[in-house]
Amino acid sequence: VRPQWNSTIAFNRALILRNIYINNEIILQMDVLRLKYIWIGLAGSVGASMRYLIGLLLITNSLFPFSTLLINLIGCYLLALLTTTLFRMVTIPTNLKLAIGTGLIGSFTTFSTISVETVQLFEDGRYSIGTAYIFCTIFGGLLFSRLGYQTGKEK
User: Fold this and answer.
1) Would the pTM count as exceeding 0.90?
2) Is 90 exceeded by the pLDDT of residue 11?
3) Which residues of 1-39 are buried (b: 16+ CB within 10 A; e: fewer)?
4) Engineered SS bond to 44: which of 38, 103, 131, 149, CB 3.0-4.6 Å?
5) pLDDT above 60: residue 8
6) How far is residue 121's CA from residue 130's CA, in Å, rounded to a whole number?
């Protein structure tokens, strides 16, 4: 007789349990919310895909890397907004907060791209554009984080 695999998800106030059955007997029970690495990875793939799609939509022939700057400024705003509103107003499991902050927004924004693009600008002799990019990224990120924080405090 071939074993029959089956699974269910049970919702409880504190847990979301995933039960795996063989022939109607539970062989494995997992607390889905505690699988933080999987949640972070899934959210990270969404954030990275969003970054890629926005980058495609904003492709310009400009010498200045506007798409990366815009993505990072949006990410600064969203992370500050979420940490001041949603994460405080709604009871969200810690692992889901990690998935959103570290996974989704962490992979949506990117420091490595900023670094590589800046080095490329300097290597190409475009020092003023590279310096402006660093300035816009750092101070723009701080400004957008502040705007997100202020927006969140007003709600």
Assistant:
1) no
2) no
3) eeeeeeeeeeeeeeeeeeeebeeeeeeeebebbebbeeb
4) 103
5) no
6) 5
Alpha-carbon torsion, ordered 103, 105, 107, 108, to 10 deg: 150
Res 81 pLDDT > 60: yes
Q: Which residues contact 1 (CB under 8 A, 6 or more apart)?
A: none
Residue 56 corresponds to which tokens in the numbers above?
């495609």
Give the chain's mean pLDDT: 82
Structure tokens at 145: 């984080």
Give me the percent of the chain exceeding a pLDDT of 70.
77
Amino acid at 101: G
Alpha-carbon Rg for the chain in angstroms: 21
Q: Which tens digits make up the pLDDT trace of 47-79?
A: 999 999 988 888 777 889 998 999 999 999 999
Query: Could you tell me which of 145, 133, 130, 119 has the C-alpha nearest to residue 68?
Result: 133
